[in-house]
């Protein structure tokens, strides 16, 4: 289905960008923390290398920090770009509606 909209709110834009970055960056940093815990590489925080259990514990926090930072930068740019695009007219958003008869898993 497609919905014609005039503009997407800034909050919705940040929510979509934030969720996208969180679920893509966080698994990567946790994987990097696991490899650093096994001694295959090291993470770096504030110029200091992190290895072992310290890297494993710090990796989710690094992922959340990176996700928040990227969301602020790219979310602002995307919100501005969509606002400029909305000045030229409405645009379509394709989506899949919720099927209320089907149980969610």
Automatic annotation (TrEMBL):
<feature type="transmembrane region" description="Helical">
    <location>
        <begin position="60"/>
        <end position="88"/>
    </location>
</feature>
<keyword id="KW-0472">Membrane</keyword>
<protein>
    <recommendedName>
        <fullName>DUF3566 domain-containing protein</fullName>
    </recommendedName>
</protein>
<feature type="transmembrane region" description="Helical">
    <location>
        <begin position="16"/>
        <end position="40"/>
    </location>
</feature>
<keyword id="KW-0812">Transmembrane</keyword>
<keyword id="KW-1133">Transmembrane helix</keyword>
């Amino acid at each position: 289905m497609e919905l014609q909209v005039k503009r997407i709110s800034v909050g919705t834009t940040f929510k979509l960008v934030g969720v996208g970055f969180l679920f893509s960056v966080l698994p990567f940093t946790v994987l990097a923390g696991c490899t650093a815990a096994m001694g295959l590489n090291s993470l770096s925080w504030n110029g200091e290398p992190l290895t072992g259990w310290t890297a494993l514990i710090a990796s989710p926090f690094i992922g959340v920090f990176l996700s928040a930072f990227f969301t602020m930068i790219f979310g602002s740019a995307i919100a501005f770009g969509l606002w400029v695009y909305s000045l030229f007219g409405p645009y379509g958003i394709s989506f899949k509606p919720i099927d209320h008869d089907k149980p969610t898993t």
